[in-house]
Specification:
CATH topology of the largest domain: D-Maltodextrin-Binding Protein, domain 2
Keywords: DNA-binding, Transcription, Transcription regulation
Distance between the termini: 58 Å
Helix content: 40-55%
Protein name: HTH lysR-type domain-containing protein
GO molecular function: DNA-binding transcription factor activity; sequence-specific DNA binding
Number of helices: 11
CATH superfamily of the largest domain: Periplasmic binding protein-like II
Largest sheet: 10 strands, mixed
Number of strands: 12
Family: Belongs to the LysR transcriptional regulatory family.
CATH class of the largest domain: Alpha Beta
InterPro entries: LysR-type_TF_proteobact-type, LysR_HTH_N, LysR_subst-bd, WH-like_DNA-bd_sf, WH_DNA-bd_sf
């Protein structure tokens, strides 16, 4: 009996070819680069030939790899189109799988989700943490909420909000030290950093400031962790105003100054183009847009604009 066809590994191979690198393919498939490398090595072991050559520029297809990709790419496209047509003919779905980042999920989506459940009580929601849009294409998720990317044009997208950095901290922290009257005063407090230590630098540069302290301090892997650290009184954090909204409304955080900087990227809710008219998907996307509008109005303050800074 012949061995089972390694469909998962073959799909991984196709995605690596399309992405041009194992790291980008890993991001799109929401797995680690090591997992991608293992799948490719398994294929090469089964075939007994190399599929990629590694050089200073990255990876290049071997003649064997090119031949395999040319035959497989169209096959997977046919499978995806057949699946999409079947999904369109299915009855009203009662379960939505939503892919988003941990920050969006914890800081915006989950606190607001009861509103959607009231609107559509028969729709069950499953939330997955992932930073890529490729799962939409393959039908593994129904909705994706994330910032705009190069792959955005491949899907149906609806704008949710623009991005503004605001400085926030615990009210307890302000009560123990002097008030903040200007952006410069933030330097008298501990500064909480994003993982790339970039937010404070671009924010201060936008207001004509430069100080070694702007890249010092504890750093956190995503904005939900930054918000938690700020709520705990560990210092002042720069975060997306939408992500801080719930903590601001509950008084766990305060905005310490009106000095607000606009970022260059916006956030969107995505679905596959061929599925945008499905009932549950359409209802969720309409609700998400309405909720995003409420969130933006809920914490609106007079803004001292610094233009686009990142």
């Amino acid at each position: 009996m012949s061995k089972a066809i390694p469909l998962i590994a073959l799909r991984t191979f196709v995605e690596v070819c399309k992405a041009g690198s194992m790291k980008r393919a890993a991001d799109q498939l929401c797995v680690s680069p090591a997992a991608i490398s293992q799948q490719i090595k398994g294929l090469e072991d089964q075939i007994g030939r190399r599929l990629f050559e590694r050089d200073a520029k990255g990876i290049q297809l071997t003649p064997c790899g090119r031949s395999l990709f040319d035959e497989l790419a169209g096959t997977f496209d046919v499978i995806e189109k057949a699946w999409s047509r079947a999904a369109l003919k299915a009855p009203r779905q009662t379960r939505l799988v939503i892919s988003t980042t941990s920050t969006i999920a914890s800081s915006w989506l989950i606190p607001a989700l009861s509103g959607f459940k009231e609107r559509c009580p028969n729709v069950e929601i499953s939330i997955q943490i992932c930073n890529g849009l490729s799962e939409l294409k393959h039908g593994h998720v129904d909705i994706c909420i994330q910032r705009e990317t190069a792959a955005s044009c491949e899907n149906h997208a609806t704008h949710l909000w623009s991005s503004y950095l605001i400085p926030v901290c615990s009210p307890r922290l302000l009560s123990t030290q002097r008030n903040i009257e200007s952006p410069q005063d933030c330097l008298t407090f501990p500064l909480l950093q994003d993982t790339e230590r970039n937010y404070w630098k671009v924010w201060m540069n936008a207001f004509g400031m430069s100080n070694r302290k702007m890249i010092q301090g504890s750093s956190y892997g995503d904005e939900s962790l930054l918000i938690s650290a700020a709520c705990a009184g560990q210092g002042i954090a720069l975060v997306n105003s939408v992500f801080a909204s719930e903590a601001l409304q509950s008084k766990r955080l305060v905005q310490v100054t009106n000095a607000t900087a606009e970022l260059k990227f916006d956030y969107f809710v995505y679905c596959a183009k061929e599925r945008r008219e499905e009932w549950a998907i359409a209802e969720f996307m309409k609700w998400a847009v309405q909720q995003a509008g409420k969130t933006a109005k809920g914490h609106a303050r007079e803004i001292e604009s610094a233009g686009q800074v990142a």
